[in-house]
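Hey Z.,

So I finally got round to the 2-acetamido-2-deoxy-beta-D-glucopyranose thing we talked about over coffee. Here's the setup:
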Amino acid sequence: MKGIEKSLTEEYLYLDFSHQTEGCIFPLHTSVTVFLLLYCDCKIFKVCLVLTRESTEISLIRNVLPQDVETQMISREELPPIVQNCCLPAVVERPGNFCRAGLAVVLRYIIQKSYEADPSKKEMLELLGFKKTCLKACAEVSQWTRLCELTIPLAIENFLRESSEQPSAIPVEILQLEKKLSEPVRVHNDDKLRRQKLKQQKAAGVGLSLGKDEAKSKVCNQETSEELDSPSKSLELEVAFSKLTAQEEPVTANRESHIRKAKASDLPPSGARVAEGFTHVADIVLCPVFIIFALVIICKRHSEKLVEFPLLASWYHRIQEVPKVKTTASKCGIQFLELPELLTTSNEQHPSEVLGAEEQNDPSFIGGPRPTMTKLMKKGIEVMFSPHPCPTWTLDWNNLPAAVSPKEGKMSSDRALRKQQQLNNLVYMVKNQARPGDRIVDFCSGGGHVGIVLAHMLPSCQVTLIENKELSLVRAKKRSDELGLSNIWFIQANMEYFTGMFNIGVALHACGVATDMVIEHCIKMRASFVTCPCCYGFIQNTSKFNFPKSEQFKEALSYKEHMILCRFADQTAAQLPPQRRLIGKQCMCLVDLDRARAAEERGYSVQVMSMEPESCSPKNNMIVGVPI
Ligand SMILES: *[C@@H]1O[C@H](CO)[C@@H](O)[C@H](O)[C@H]1NC(C)=O
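And the result:
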């Protein structure tokens, strides 16, 4: 039975191919994916190499991949439409409308499928790390994912490109990584700071403000908040780093004890043993990359430079001892080099000294948001909502198919009602904008409440759901299949890896800076946006955004003052005293006005308004933008 079912759908893995040098395939994402395929002995996918424009000499690329991997070459134009809208690597079921894209998501999927195909290979699953969360958080919020997926591959690619002419400098990213490896305790401190922040917020009533459906909506956006609110993520990182350290003691012992103190229940089953092994997919991801890198430095007679990277060099030694790594590498045409045993001069500064450096409480939240609001007012910035164009409009919920309605889930009727009210608002705004043939994207779609209603209501439009969490998206697809929707796509990816054109972007309760990422993505595509933010308390500077965002707010407020607004914007829970809630709502408005102004500066007409009725959610703001 199973076999028959399987033969109905086939899974295709698409990999970019531009060229090949010194045993590795460009772009490096392809090398890394192929390495993992071989490592897992995974034969589930039909592998297609997608030729980029530069790669013309097809005759030369006959034998690019090891014989174990059967492949075919195709051009970009031959990709299924859904994949044409995504960054590679990507996996898609054919026939089907469900695509997984981006290095981290695809690597996780390969591991998962290899394990399903042969459950005796428990070690495969271990690649996903403790709690199976490795590389789960998207690159925007997880520095480890960012490192593996973006920073390091890019740096190495550039290095290889340049060094074909003359020896070039060691990429700073590598130097930074080495440095990062040498200061593991900072990670711990970050984590501690975050937990402290959370504690403060809880004490200030933020915890309360997450009403039931807020809590749920947070789940759908957890890829953005995961690292902020879950200590296990940082532990994950820490374990990963600790494995890379050259010296087991005293540093490791020291660190282990800190982990223990942190929280016993969050510990890997055997912290110490995990720390010695290489059971982390990040290692495998980094493996070929660093091998290649090391290889290149040696080839360019830079071997003396290796002393500058004692930790990475030690990792290079140790990774070879991991079962199957050496054989897999040689299948890929990569040979480990015999390096002289390095005197790993560990930096003996005691990391524990770093501890406590940032422990004082932040006094800036004591005065409340009033001084900040007064300051804004002096600059002519006041709390002001645009009027709702049609406060009473509602979908005819009783006559919609059951699977369209949020009632379908396991929601209580009260929650379902409020979810319906939220959807009324979003659907009205989108319907007003949409023209036949438009493409609409539901970002951070979660289980698909918004996207499925839109696809049903607007059959002449194409709706794409984008979500980093596999389970949510699989649930959404199931609902959509029940309805027989044919104008809908599902993409499991970091939203940045969706490269397709679209006309309208929607996001209901995209957490913290996820809302800013959505708006940014829409502006890049000159698309309209309808967003309803939440988790203002998680807003902070990221690699892409600084707050405040708009010139007008920047002139009036410092970063800290803006953060005060963000903290108090989270205090809108129904249980709070009315006066506090009012201030919360005002702060929410100001934070969103800053977002609106920033979009206006880039050629948009933007309105900040309240959803109707306001009781539909404590996070009831909408930011609606249209390109001028
Ligand atoms: C955030 O970005 C702003 C604007 O660039 C800067 O002034 C501020 O110091 C940054 N704050 C932090 C904590 O990085």
